[in-house]
């Protein structure tokens, strides 16, 4: 009921049958991180590092970067913090990385792709992350945005190794990455689904355009199928390597929708990262279902013909949302 949705989160993400599901926070800097820790987040699933340096005309220096990252790590001693390397793009330009004259910025040189046009920036960022991590008690993972191919994943992993960073990962936010996650996960240790961009690219609908909001809906069955493909690819990679599947989390806005969080859990993701204020409501609804019920709802949502049908049938099946 309503009262339980307003409860504060007790720091343990799980389904009703005890199946664990880490509930992490999306943050843009130290202030967000402290608020997320106070709200009980189990760690940070997405540190959007570009938010630390918005408005900078030039690349931030090493010490400035180390200080920014340490401010976040310090809020989560002993906990996981996933740092996303700079994702300058149309929606958040960084003058030292972004070419404002690109005709089609969403399809342009953004995210990991800026490593080719601005060589060295990424390696220097990884060095600063490594120094900040070495001087903190957080468990630091690093991931690259806008990875489209296994070759890019391999390059990023090599850069991380060069910086002494142990746990490289990739964001899955381009449909090609979702469809080839098996090969990406041969190169890196984890994947994190960025459903904001994954939806934009699956539906060919600019996420910034209000008139396209109905297309830009992560309940679209095509988006759910891409989530499924990513998780299936991780399972296949694990099988072929004779190891457990590598973790696949979600760090897009979809994770903050309690009904969709149930579907994502049912599709097999292992963590959800969201704005910290969304965690209590998501936690409450996750605890109202078993893993088996989540899997059933996920299958029904994926089989729906439309986003509205998927959303409607899942919400109707969740008394906690009534
Ligand atoms: C995403 O694309 O879903 C994501 C988490 O990254 P951002 O919103 O920063 O592009
Ligand atoms: Mg993104």
TrEMBL record:
Cofactor dependency: Mg(2+)
PEP-utilising enzyme C-terminal domain residues: 15-289
Transmembrane segment boundaries: none
Keyword flag Kinase: yes
Keywords: Kinase, Magnesium, Metal-binding, Pyruvate, Transferase
Gene Ontology BP terms: phosphoenolpyruvate-dependent sugar phosphotransferase system
Single GO molecular function: metal ion binding
Top-level taxon of origin: Bacteria
Family indicated by similarity: Belongs to the PEP-utilizing enzyme family.
Record protein name field: Phosphoenolpyruvate-protein phosphotransferase
Residue range from the parent sequence: 246 to 567 of 571
């Amino acid at each position: 009921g309503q009262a339980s949705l307003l409860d504060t989160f007790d720091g343990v993400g799980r389904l009703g049958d005890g199946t664990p599901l880490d509930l992490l926070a999306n943050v843009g800097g130290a202030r967000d991180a402290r608020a997320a820790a106070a709200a009980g987040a189990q760690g940070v699933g997405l540190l959007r590092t570009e938010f630390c340096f918005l408005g900078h005309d030039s690349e931030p220096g090493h010490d400035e970067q180390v200080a920014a990252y340490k401010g976040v790590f310090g809020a989560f001693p002993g906990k996981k913090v996933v740092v996303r390397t700079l994702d300058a793009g149309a929606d958040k330009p960084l003058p030292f990385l972004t070419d404002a004259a690109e005709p089609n910025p969403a399809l342009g040189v953004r995210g990991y792709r800026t490593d080719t046009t601005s060589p060295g920036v990424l390696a220097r960022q990884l060095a600063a992350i490594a120094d900040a991590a070495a001087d903190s008690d957080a468990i630091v993972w690093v991931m690259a945005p806008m990875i489209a191919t296994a070759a890019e994943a391999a390059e990023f992993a090599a850069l991380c190794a060069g910086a002494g960073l142990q746990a490289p990962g990739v964001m899955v936010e381009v449909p090609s990455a979702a469809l080839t996650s098996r090969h990406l996960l041969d190169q890196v240790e984890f994947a994190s689904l960025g459903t904001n961009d994954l939806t934009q690219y699956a539906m060919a609908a600019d996420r910034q355009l209000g008139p396209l909001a109905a297309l830009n809906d992560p309940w679209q069955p095509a988006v759910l199928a891409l989530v499924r493909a990513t998780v299936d690819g991780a399972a296949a990679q694990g099988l072929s390597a004779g190891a457990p599947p590598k973790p696949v989390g979600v760090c897009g806005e979809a994770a903050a929708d309690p009904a969709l969080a149930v579907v994502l859990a049912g599709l097999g993701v292992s963590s959800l990262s969201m704005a910290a204020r969304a965690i209590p409501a998501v936690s409450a609804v996750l605890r109202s279902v078993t893993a088996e019920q989540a899997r059933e709802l996920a299958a029904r949502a994926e089989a729906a013909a439309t986003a509205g049908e998927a959303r409607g049938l899942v919400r109707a099946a969740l008394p906690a949302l009534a």
